[in-house]
Amino acid sequence: MAKTMFEKIWDAHVVLQRDDGQTLLYVDRHLCHDGSFQGYYTLNSQGRKMRRPDLTWGSPDHYRPTDAQSLNDISDPVLREKVALFDRNAAESGIHYYGLDSKKMGVVHVIGPELGITLPGIMLVCGDSHTATHGALGAFAFGIGASEVAHVMATQTLWQRKPKTMRITVNGEVGFGVTGKDVILAIIAKISAAGAAGHVVEFAGSGITALSMEERMTVCNMTIEAGGRAGMIAPDDKTIAYCKGREFAPKGDKWARAVAYWKTLPTDAGAVFDKEVTLNGADIAPMVTWGTSPENGVPVTAAVPDPNSESDPVRREEIRGALEYMGLAAGTPVAEIAVDQVYIGSCTNGRIEDLRAAAAVAKGRKAVIAARVVPGSEPVRQQAVDEGLDQIFIDAGFEWRLPGCASCLCLNDEVFAPGTRTASTSNRNFMGRQGEGVRTHLVSPAMAAAAAVTGHFTDVRTLEGNK
């Protein structure tokens, strides 16, 4: 019987099944961060030890201020204690741990692929919704809750109900100036923020396979913003080349056996998905969100929608409410929207290719508004320094920071002022996501840099030249 890639991986991880539809799955690898303290608390309060600390990796990212070189540099006592608690829990449990002084530390969804923790065919979980990122390598990866984190810590297994399957095919390669971020924003704009609810999504088609590995990570990262349980892309030669030689990837004879297995993972011809969606890559342009949901995205060449043109009364009121919060008038050209600050970073767009794309726009120009660049990991930061990207940003007036989640969310002290407007490369534009009353617009790194040097949303293709 023909199987989807997801079904193959699911079946390979089944420990047992209950009559009520719940399935116990084996977890290959587990990531945790400084927000995983509740899982540790449950484990410790029950007097349990972590079953497989060798299969758990962690690094402080959510609460770590990105101007703090060490624990002593964190002035906020609450933030300092969150990071210190993770230090203690990690040391006591014996996991692979990369603290603030580590050359391998960073956002867990960035260091996972970097270190070869993420591999095709594995089941990977983390107490963070954007664990979907790792599906770009052909893994079944998804976020879990605090009680589930404790269950994985104690048993290396997890109870789940099997989700449905969905395939989103992008036919034809995207044009110049269009990135993986634009692809996923266009997908969400088409299917809605609930369009993939209850499904594991496989992204396919020439428009997906043409993307780099890091762009694929961006696409899978935001599957959760379409309501999906996980996002996946079949492993191919790019995937295998990316994984080879990484620290926790197989070596020697194990490598050859692993590659042979990975090549069996792609979906079989004739496999049936519960839902199918198709897009034309050539139709996708640089995207900007205008509202308070990732589904509120339009090309930078378009205008803010008019709620009066919406026939559905519920949707009409949603648009009105979003425009009121965002301080926008219906019909305003996106390219005329002024921006107050820019944030480039996060698990969505904090990798080296993202920084290169932003630096290419910033080079030889000056930021006219506040702009902050946050590498996704210490290896990314060091590579950017080696390539001179940090100096390009500094010369252009951008603030260059240390790795972390930073201004993606409000768990640290890097929020923006109420009422201000942000061009952000992160994954969520919900009300208050980047600070109380902050108006967040999601864009690609190059589009964020273009906003920084012009002061408003600008079609990056006009700055880079339509090659």
Description:
The protein is of the alpha/beta class and about 475 residues long. The protein has 2 domains: about 5-275, 2-Layer Sandwich (Aconitase, domain 3); about 285-460, Aconitase, domain 3, CATH 3.30.499.10. Helices cover about 35% and strands about 15% of the residues. Strands 5-4-3-6-7 form a 5-stranded parallel beta sheet, sandwiched between helices. The chain has a 5-stranded parallel beta sheet with strand order 17-16-15-18-19, with helices on one face. Strands 11-10-9-12 form a 4-stranded parallel beta sheet. The mean pLDDT is about 95.
Strand order of the largest sheet: 5-4-3-6-7
What class, by secondary structure content? Answer: alpha/beta
CATH fold assignment of the largest domain? Aconitase, domain 3
- Tally the structural domains: 2
Could you give the count of β-strands?
Answer: 19
Give the % helix.
25-40%
Determine Rg (CA atoms, Å): 21 Å
- Oligomeric state, counting identical vs distinct chains: single chain
- Mean pLDDT across residues: 96
Instruction: Please give the count of helices.
Output: 17
